[in-house]
Amino acid sequence: MLTWVIYDIVKDKPRTQVARLCQRAGIMRVQYSVFLGDLNANEIDELGLQIKALINEETDRVYIFPMCKEDFSKVRLLGQAFDKKLITNEIRELFL
Q: Residue 80: which residues within 8 A CB-CB, separation 6 or more?
């Protein structure tokens, strides 16, 4: 299931650790605090638990949005949607 992970984490160390968790989970960075990739339900749960263990729930915000292909096809990208330095052809192909 295509999954977005979007976060706003105040401190550098947990923010970096969350980015590494996302990368290890196999999802790709599309902006500095936005990742997108294909995860199954168990992987989403596991990633959520790992992120929860790192963040400060009083100050940080993390959104994990699983999307079915039908909903994903309705995503609209506006402006420069992605940081072109960060995205891969694999991400671009998801939106073609």
A: none
Name the residue type at position 96.
L
CA atoms within 13 A on the CB side of 78: 0
Which pairs with CB-CB distance under 8 Å and at least 24 residues apart come from 87-96? Answer: 87/28, 87/29, 87/30, 88/28, 90/28, 91/28, 91/30, 91/36, 94/2, 94/36
Quote the crossing angle between the two packed helices 12-25 and 41-54, to the nearest 10°: 160
Residue labelled with tokens 């979007």:
6
Q: Please list the residues that pair with 2 across neighbouring strands.
A: 38, 67
Q: Is the predicted pLDDT of residue 51 greater than 90, yes or no?
A: yes
For 12-35, what is each residue's pLDDT tens digit?
Answer: 999 999 999 999 999 999 999 999
> Cα(43)–Cα(74) distance, rounded to whole angstroms?
24
Q: Are 39 and 26 in contact (CB under 8 A)?
A: yes
